[in-house]
Amino acid sequence: MNTLNQKVAIVTGAGSGFGAAIARAYVAAQAKVVLADLRPETAQAVAGELGANAMAVGCDVSRFDQVQAMVRQCVERFGAPDIVVNNAGTTHRNQSMLDVDEETFDRVFNVNVKSIYHMTRAVVPLMKPRKDGVILNVGSVGGIRPRPGLTWYNSSKGAVKVMTKSMAVELAPDGIRVNLISPVMAPTGLLQDFMGVADTDENRARFISTIPLGRMCDPTDVAHVAVFLASQEARFLTGVEMPVDGGRSI
């Protein structure tokens, strides 16, 4: 059984969706978890059900000062982080690439890409002296097998993919493992933007028909992989891209 044995973890975007599922799975695996989210009330709702080993912190991951402050709170409450899950993400609506305005483009890249730059600068100096650490970045099948309508979102996840592999090589001598989880579409708050049409059973069925295993990704599917990749059982895995996609990227 995978156990995280009192490891300290930070999960961003932990107020809902994949992040909330990962936080729940980590606490169940005996980790202490900081749930960071732009909406502190949603993170607090999840942390409240998880007990003393969970703490909610409001954090805009696109701002270095807020990331630094969140990491500082983690250190003060639980200690230096052993595991960081860069899950916070956003998208633009599924539409022509020419219809996405610059402000939206910048927001997508700031939240999906620049946030990892900020987090790395904040946590890697705490991991290096211990020669140990795990960083998990959440990508997308859109970074593996992109389709029209989400060009700039797909590009941001493509950047995360290359960033993960480069980080893995650079940080390996410091004992820090860096891996990528790439889910397919899931019934989360971003679903309607991903589809670009109304969230109806008929429209869901059209997208599900492209997934060989015949359903959307469930947040718990991602959470199980996140527990494994952070565990000692995965201690020889770094730079791995793990599609959690029911065969969609084949």
Task: Give me the secondary-structure topology.
Elements: E1 8-12, H1 17-28, E2 32-37, H2 40-50, E3 54-58, H3 64-77, E4 83-86, H4 102-127, E5 133-138, H5 151-171, E6 176-183, H6 191-195, H7 201-208, H8 219-230, E7 241-244
Parallel strand pairs: 1-2, 1-4, 2-3, 4-5, 5-6, 6-7
Helix pairs in contact: 1-2, 1-8, 3-4, 4-5
Explain how this protein is built:
The protein has a seven-stranded parallel β-sheet, with helices on both faces. The chain has a single domain (about 10-240), classed as Rossmann fold (3-Layer(aba) Sandwich), CATH 3.40.50. It contains eight helices and seven strands, in the order βαβαβαβαβαβαααβ. It has about 250 residues and is α/β, with parallel strands linked by helices. It starts with 7 loop residues before the first strand and ends in a 6-residue tail after the last strand. Helix 2 (about 40-50) links the parallel strand 2 (about 30-35) and strand 3 (about 55-60).
